[in-house]
Amino acid sequence: MTQDQTNLLQGTLDMMILKALALDHMHGLGISRRIEQITKGTFQVKPGSLFPALHRMEEEGWLVSSWGESENNRRAKYYRLTKAGRRQLESETQRWGRISLAIARALEAS
Amino acid sequence: MLSRMTNFWRNIFAKEKTDRDLDEEVRSYYESLAEEKMRQGLSSEEARHSARLELGGIEQVKEEVRDVRTGAWLDSLLQDLRFGARMLRKNPGFSAIAVLTLALGIGANTAIFSAVHGVLLSPLPYAQPDRLVMIMESNPRYAHVWVSYPNFQDWQRNAQSFLQMAAFMQQGYDLSNPGTPEHVDGSAVTAGFFSTLGVRLALGREFSAQEDQYGGARALIISDRLWKNRFAQNPQVLGKPATLDGVDCFIVGVLPPGFRFWSDADVYTPLGQGDALIINPRGSHDGIGAIARLRPQVSISQAKAEMSTIQNALDRLYPDDNRDLGTDVMPLKRELVGDVSGILVMLLGAVGLVLLIACANVANLFLARSVARRREFGIRAALGANRGRLIRQLITESVLLSLAGGALGVLIAIPAVKSLLAAFPDSLPRNANIGVNAPVLLFTLGVSIVVGIFFGLAPALKSWNADFQAPLKDGGRGSTSPHSRAQSSLVVVQMALTLVLLLSAGLLFRTIRQLSEVDPGFDTQHIITFKVGVSRSLMKTVASTRIAYQQLIGRIRDIPGVQAADFTDTVPLSGQGGTIPFWIDSQRPASLQAAPRLVGFLTGPDYFRTMGIPLLRGRSFTPHDTVQSPCVVVIDSTFSRMYFPGSDPLGRTITFGFASPTGPCRIIGVARHVRHWALDDPTSSTQNQMYFPLAQDPDQWVLVGYPYLTVVLRTPLESATVMPAIKAAVYGAGSDQPVYDVRTMQNIVSESMSPQRFPMILLSVFAALALLLASVGLYGVISYAVTQRTHEIGIRMALGAEKKDVFRLVVGGGLRLAVTGVALGGITAPILTRVLPSFAHLLYGVSASDPLTFAAVSSILVLVALLACYIPARRAMKVHPMISLRYE
After folding, report:
1. Is B81 part of any domain?
2. Tag placement on chain B: N or C end, fewer CB within 10 Å?
3. CA B220/CA B193 separation, integer angstroms
4. Is residue B682 part of a domain?
5. Can you give the residue range of the structural domain that contains B701?
């Protein structure tokens, strides 16, 4: 039970990060701000979960990182989606669609 | 996959750069966050504080990233290993003792396992060896007898269960050209023998069907060794001549290096050209064995059933020779390995006990040390290390130790195996196959890891029952801890296991003593035995052969210092000898297979005097007993008792033999029984003995039998002193006459005890090792207890206890453990010896529950235990009450 929950949450965070990076490359703080923005503040990603997720996803080959200049001239690490990352986003989106539809139906039924 | 590997590489080997990157990334995040906050209107101070709160600790974030990286487990393992290695280096004494203890245990196991692997586990070096079988015949008296060659040929023609069938016969040959004359071991084999085994010759071919018959071309196959030694590895050796037993042969094949079957034969000849007297009669079962390769899908039991149908038909066809004759089909490996498997498994068990004792010692060391390290673990636990991680740390350390012990053990095992094989060259079959090789090393590695986990886990779990915080609260000094109970039970088990080993070694030791005191029925002192390959030029006819042998023994008797000498075809206790069917007077049995058997000796008239066998009744042979005079025999006292109870055997007659029986021969004397098969004279083997004069050996047997004769010679001189004169006397009649197999009777007697001596010496070594380890273990536990109880002892002394009371307290504690162990071992040992028939079979003249042996080894054990307690007890007596109390 606990395991499923973590998986679900982790999957959700991964999807958020992928979605946030879908348009443009971004650094860590940018990603967490972007997630806050697109979920209208529902999700607040703490660095303690953001960084492990970023590094794990980079190892999976979904993201690549490079050093660049931030908006206020600070050296920052930027993340960008790879082809595999885009494919992952698509399949995550589809999976999420199926799950939320199923849950919605289940809740309506009862 | 590739990216994963590069990640792995980067995380493990470019660790510093990855860490720097991470640090910079997190730091930049933090700075950006703070700036963002400042833009929202916070002061620089407040912004930084708030950013730090949101971040939740830079180090923690970095740690969490490290944990998700590929290879994180390896990273922490390396960390554990580094830390473990540091801990072990910090305590060099502790580590050295633990590694040495384990090395002894693991090394002994590696050595014995290499024998078990080489002899029992590894497949025979032939193609698909599990499809190879051996076929033997059986009769109502013996489960296995050698095969009759005509029967074998009928099987070969009729049996469908086999792809191929072949026969072999061990033989010795005198090789006189090229090179110096030499006696070589060899084998006569049928055409198709090597292809049945699936062995390809290195050069040439095996025998053809035309060569494998009477009058065929004198083809010869040689071993790789002979090819190297005699033919300088000449690749053009095929077709080259060689002289074997005075007959010119030519080489048709060379075997691959290392080929071995049954014995280390150097030459192979076609069996079909063998002696007509041995291979032609259907009733002859004289050293020929049959092997076969099963057809695919055919099981051994199916083959057995088919063979017995064929044999039944043959029995009906040839009732005179074959009646009551059966067959048996069995895996070839079992036949080649023989009956050592029980002994080897027993030795492996014994050496396993030694390893257990070694493990208990190291476990005790770990227990003692885990007390000392309780504070360290308490602190680490307080700083956030979880329990699993700490246990992993302990196991890593113990496995590190046991691997070091295993590596050192292998270094011990390699020379141990070598010297073992050198000391007992004939005690194990397939011994060329024994060595510390890859499978053995794998076994050692496995044992080391299991052992490491075993003795690491026990103390780890034990100490984890304790509260982590407790050691931080008090000064780390407690009253009697639960550890000491665990340590005590380990010592009791060690003592019990040691007793079992001591007892089994002791029983075998007593067995050897008993065997050495056995009177074998003849005088074993001052006898030398050897064989002579009499020149074939002197053996052109039967008459010339008889004369050549007469002259040879005459020349030997003339040598100064030789008191008596004569020929025999069978030397007692040497492993030689076969049994012959016979009947008394005219009571010819219906079937030869059902006839009683005797152990026959073909000897010259001086044999009894030379061997010191007393004649109890009648007369011995004289030079007047020849082929021209009536046939006579001498029987032994057992024969007389078994077949002539209450009557006089002298004047009765015996007829003996298979194919063309000899006799009836008149019994002219009764000699004392000689222990022939072994000193313990197993009643399961044929006991009744008969002597037949060499001079009366029928003409047709002379050329076949004489080359196998052994000279026995009585002289007070040393073998080395007298042998040159003997060789000179032998060579005087022809330089192509090798003298070989020179042995003293004392050697033969001593070697006859090797079935007992081999396990006895090994068990003694193991028992000594166990005793050493167990006493070190006891010493460790007692001296640890003394250290722990210094305070208590101080109080006792302050309250008026005398030094001898303290001494009694300490030694008594140790003694209690030893005696409990002895009792436990005393209960276990008889059960073990009873369920190990291969051990019980070795005993002679001493019962498995011999009270004397038990008393002796128990006192040894208790005495050594006392010694082990003495040193700590001395230290306890020196405790000064004031000093020990001052630490309060």
Report:
1. no
2. N
3. 13
4. yes
5. 527-745
DSSP line for B306-363: HHHHHHHHHHHH-HHHHTT-EEEEEEHHHHHHGGGHHHHHHHHHHHHHHHHHHHHHHH
pTM (2 d.p.): 0.74
Identify which of A28, A56, A72 has the shortest CB distance to residue B25: A28
A6 touches chain B (CB under 8 A): no
In this complex, the residue of B28, B60, B69 whose CB is nearest that of residue A55 is B69
Residue listed under structure tokens 């034969």: B265
Cα distance between residue B223 and residue B595, in whole Å: 40
- CB burial of B864-888 (b: ≥16 within 10 Å; e: otherwise) equals bbbebbbebbebbbebebeebeeee
Closest CA–CA distance from residue B21 to any residue of chain A (Å): 9
CATH number, domain at A24?
Answer: 1.10.10.10
Same domain, B539 and B501: no
Together in a domain, B690 and B723 = yes
Residue of chain A minimizing CA distance to B24: A76
What letter does residue B662 receive in the DSSP assignment? E
Residue B528 backbone phi and psi in degrees, to 5? -115, 140
Element (H, E) at B689: strand B689-693
Regarding whether B678 and B592 lie in a shared domain, the answer is: yes
Same-domain check for residues B161 and B307: yes
Nearest Cα neighbor of B733 from B543, B550, B530, B541 is B550
Cβ-based neighbour number of residue B28 at 10 Å: 19
Nearest CB to B7; choose among A28, A29, A59: A59
Give the alpha-carbon dihedral of B377, B381, B385, B388, to 10 degrees.
70
CB A62 within 8 A of CB A22: no
What's the CA gap between B831 and B145, in Å, rounded? 36
Query: Could you tell me which residues come within 8 angstroms of residue B304 by beta carbon, excluding any fewer than 6 positions away?
Result: B327, B328, B329
Cβ A47–B61 below 8 Å, yes or no? yes
Distances (CA, A) of A107 to A104, B676, B804, B805: 5, 95, 85, 82
Residue pLDDT, tens place only, B3-29: 666 776 666 666 777 788 888 888 888
Residues of chain B with Cβ-Cβ distance to A31 below 8 Å are: none
Nearest 5°: the CA angle B152, B156, B157 is 120
User: Alpha-carbon distance B872 to B489, whole Å?
Assistant: 19
**How far is residue B417's CA from residue B112's CA, in Å, rounded to a whole number?**
8
CA distance B770 to B502: 8
B149 assigned to some structural domain = yes
pLDDT digits (tens, 9 = 90+) for B739-784: 888 999 998 998 888 888 888 888 999 999 999 988 888 888 888 7
Residue tagged 């090229």 (tokens): B178
Other Cβ atoms less than 10 A from the Cβ of A65: the count is 17
- The identity of residue B153, as a single letter, is Q
**Between β-strands B182-189 and B162-177, what pairing exists: parallel, antiparallel or unpaired?**
antiparallel
Q: pLDDT means per 10 residues in chain B (888 residues)?
A: 65 73 85 85 85 77 74 72 79 83 91 89 88 91 88 94 94 82 88 93 92 90 91 90 88 91 88 85 87 94 94 90 89 84 87 90 80 72 68 84 92 90 79 85 90 79 58 48 72 90 91 89 93 84 91 91 93 86 85 82 94 93 90 94 92 84 90 91 84 90 86 92 88 76 90 86 90 87 80 82 83 88 88 76 83 91 90 81 64
Identify whether the C-beta of residue B272 lies closer than 8 Å to the C-beta of residue B279.
yes
B714 closest CA partner among B529, B558, B877: B529
Go through B2-27 and write b for each residue having 16 or more CB atoms within 10 A of its CB, e for each that does not: eeeeebeebbbeeeeebeeebeebbe
* Cβ-Cβ contacts under 8 Å, A27 against chain B: 28-29, 32
Does B786 lie in the same domain as B706? no
